[in-house]
């Protein structure tokens, strides 16, 4: 255990829980004293990951989504995991504007948004077993001016 703080939550894959996930992660990361912009970036990335789990992972059926957060120094690591469909081709799924659900008018920008707002994003997925998205962001330390 080489982290300073840790939390794990589990919730049902219902679209109304996406905002719950954002708030929980934002509350946890607040201890690092992020800027408003850093906090907004993290909340947006979490929203995208949770939405992907609900819509693509489970085809909107009600299952569980798990979020784990670890703080190491001034870095937050966020893992969003589902146990659903999995991704056929991760590299294709990462391409801007690609969506496996065009009938739902999805923008296909989920992974692009996560990669834009976080320092690192990695994806593990197995067909029929689920997807795990690992996101890392280092919060800039602001020196006090006196």
From TrEMBL:
GO MF assignments: ATP binding; protein serine kinase activity; protein serine/threonine kinase activity; sigma factor antagonist activity
Enzyme class: transferase
Pfam families linked: HATPase_c_2 (PF13581)
Reactions catalysed according to its record: L-threonyl-[protein] + ATP = O-phospho-L-threonyl-[protein] + ADP + H(+); L-seryl-[protein] + ATP = O-phospho-L-seryl-[protein] + ADP + H(+)
Sorted UniProt keywords: ATP-binding, Kinase, Nucleotide-binding, Serine/threonine-protein kinase, Sporulation, Transferase
E.C. designation(s): 2.7.11.1
Family of this protein: Belongs to the anti-sigma-factor family.
Protein role: Binds to sigma F and blocks its ability to form an RNA polymerase holoenzyme (E-sigma F). Phosphorylates SpoIIAA on a serine residue. This phosphorylation may enable SpoIIAA to act as an anti-anti-sigma factor that counteracts SpoIIAB and thus releases sigma F from inhibition.
Protein name per its UniProtKB record: Anti-sigma F factor
Organism of this sequence: Maledivibacter halophilus
Higher taxonomy: Bacteria, Bacillati, Bacillota, Clostridia, Peptostreptococcales
């Amino acid at each position: 255990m080489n982290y300073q703080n840790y939390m794990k939550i589990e919730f049902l894959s219902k679209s109304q829980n996406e905002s719950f996930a954002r708030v929980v992660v934002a509350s946890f990361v607040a201890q690092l004293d992020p800027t408003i912009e850093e906090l907004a970036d993290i909340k947006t990335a979490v929203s995208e990951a949770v939405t992907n789990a609900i819509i693509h992972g489970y085809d909107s059926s009600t299952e569980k989504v798990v979020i784990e957060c670890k703080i190491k120094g001034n870095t937050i690591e966020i893992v969003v995991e589902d146990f659903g469909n999995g991704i056929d081709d991760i590299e294709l799924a990462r391409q801007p504007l690609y969506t496996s659900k065009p009938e739902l008018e999805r923008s296909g920008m989920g992974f692009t948004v996560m990669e834009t707002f976080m320092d690192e994003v990695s994806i593990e997925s197995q067909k029929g077993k689920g997807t795990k998205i690992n996101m890392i962001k280092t919060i800039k330390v602001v020196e006090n001016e006196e």
